[in-house]
Amino acid sequence: MIDIFKLQISKEIFKANNMIKKFVQSAAIFSINILFVALLLNSSIATISYSQQNNNDELKVMTFNIRYGTANDGENSWEYRKNNVVGTIKNFNPDLLGLQEALQLQIAEILKQMPNYSYAGVGRDDGKSAGEHSCIFYLKNRFDVDSSGTFWFSETPNIVASKNWGNNITRICTWCLLRDKLSGKSFYMFNVHLDHESQPSREKSAEFLVRKINQKSLPVILTGDFNCGDDNAAIKTILKSRLIDSFRKLHVKDLNEGTFNSFKGETNGDKIDFIFVTKDFKVNKSEIVRTNYNGKYPSDHFPVIAILKFVK
């Protein structure tokens, strides 16, 4: 009887050993499969990282005169179009955005809806928050601002609200020295709004601006509403410097490239909104954005965009 009992125990132990062996084999196969999947994932991630690395030196830039937010524009007033302005910006998702005519209430609205951005710039009336800003928005997770400032287009550019070149309205330029955390490259961005009435003011402003930019040894991006077209002496002054018009680099002059649209979508007139760059950048794309929302335009200007790539 004892021998039978021992034999039964031996059989059970043998079965248990076989089950353990199968479990170990299954676990080993499972581990190998997990390792294989992990290797595939690592390979995919490496491929994505490589692709992202290839685009590290690509910059999406937008210039946009958003029409000052206290204007009595009826159905085109800021309250009715603010979401369309933000939507137009989001559709392009720029790395850098030069705004003109932006009041503090508009800046606050854009930041509320797009908290991934920060900005540099001051109001032209008091050097703080009052009046229109020619501010520069930038993606917080991509750029560090090493330094920034604003100057007034006048004989005394460091005096707040100064003007004496024939312009009745104060005109400013905001600039930033930016470091791109993805590519490690540093460059300057300038954003301006020149006068809409005084040609002497536009010409003197362009001359002063070029002198400022020529003092910089790093790459430069210049955005703005220049209130004049290619054939104007102010634009010719800029083009005689080391700057090129990113739009004109890719497009010949056309009768339907006007960027002031009067909230009606008009395309006649001059292209008065520009993105200029130094030859440190290759222009991969540049367009006038004519987005409307059921026939309603987000501003009385069309934004202009450019996709740039650092030249190695």
Q: Give the proportion of residues in helices.
A: 25-40%
Oligomer description: single chain
CATH superfamily of the largest domain: Endonuclease/exonuclease/phosphatase
Q: Tell me the number of strands.
A: 12
CATH architecture of the largest domain: 4-Layer Sandwich
User: What fold name goes in the CATH topology slot of the largest domain?
Assistant: Deoxyribonuclease I, Chain A
Give your account of this protein's structure:
- The chain has helices at 2-54, 78-92, 104-113, 199-214, 233-239, 246-250, and strands at residues 58-65, 96-100, 117-120, 136-139, 143-152, 172-180, 186-193, 220-225, 243-245, 273-278, 281-288, 304-310.
- Helix 4 links the parallel strand 7 (186-193) and strand 8 (220-225).
- Mean pLDDT is 88; it is low at 27-54.
- Helix 4 (199-214) packs parallel to helix 5 (233-239).
- The protein has 2 domains: 1-54; 56-310, 4-Layer Sandwich (Deoxyribonuclease I, Chain A), CATH 3.60.10.10.
- Strands 3-4-2-1-12-11 form a 6-stranded mixed sheet. A 6-stranded mixed sheet has the order 5-6-7-8-10-9.
- The chain is built from 6 helices and 12 strands.
- It is an alpha+beta fold and 312 residues long.
